[in-house]
């Protein structure tokens, strides 16, 4: 997602992976209570044909492939009952992972400033509970070094988009709000490959 920022001198094909320590969490509201569910497991990988000019490589021409997978059962809301409600709502047995596939990433040059977090407009396919939706997300990215960059941001989601029934307790008297906020803060690593 931060490929437009990459300006390293490498010219070989590259392999992209999400480094350990990445954070993804979901925040929402159920009645008078706010909740937060943190992912305990996250994986992501991709390919880029040339690391010399990633700006041109992120267009929809097949030169960049990035996908992220989040196991539903790795989400921890802090309480077992809440976890079970979340897994059931997300149809974890039938669809065990939430996935995202990047289609396009473009640096917002008008809003970018040197040596700081830079805004990137991304478009990709989010699949939750077996339903896919093409969505746009504005993220912020920062180059750490020639082989690592960090990306963070958030996306407001609506359960209706993914045909998710909000979890409810006490005969429906307490029902989770349909709106969720997905947050992420991850570091992506690049490793050149020999042909």
TrEMBL record:
Q: Which InterPro entries match?
A: Lipid/polyisoprenoid-bd_YceI, TTHA0802/YceI-like_sf
Q: What is the lineage of its organism?
A: Bacteria, Pseudomonadati, Balneolota, Balneolia, Balneolales
Give the protein name, as stated in the record.
Lipid/polyisoprenoid-binding YceI-like domain-containing protein
Q: Which residues form the Lipid/polyisoprenoid-binding YceI-like domain?
A: 46-185
What is the top-level taxon of the source organism?
Bacteria
Which Pfam families does this chain map to? YceI (PF04264)
């Amino acid at each position: 997602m931060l490929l437009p920022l990459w300006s390293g001198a490498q010219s070989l094909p590259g392999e992209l992976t999400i480094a350990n320590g990445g954070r993804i969490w979901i925040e929402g509201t159920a009645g008078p209570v706010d909740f937060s569910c943190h992912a305990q497991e996250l994986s992501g990988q991709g390919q880029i044909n040339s690391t010399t000019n990633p700006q041109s490589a992120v267009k929809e021409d097949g030169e960049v492939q990035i996908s992220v997978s989040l196991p539903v059962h790795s989400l921890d809301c802090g309480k077992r009952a809440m976890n079970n409600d979340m897994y059931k709502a997300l149809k974890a047995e039938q669809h065990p992972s939430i996935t995202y596939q990047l289609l396009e990433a473009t640096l917002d040059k008008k809003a970018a400033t040197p040596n700081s977090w830079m805004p990137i407009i991304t478009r990709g396919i989010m699949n939750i509970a077996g339903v896919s939706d093409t969505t746009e997300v504005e993220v912020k990215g920062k180059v750490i070094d020639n082989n690592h960059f960090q990306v963070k941001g958030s996306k407001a989601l609506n359960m209706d988009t993914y045909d998710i029934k909000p979890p409810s307790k006490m005969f429906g008297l307490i029902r989770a709000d349909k709106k969720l906020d997905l947050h992420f803060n991850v570091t992506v690593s690049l490793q050149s490959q020999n042909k």
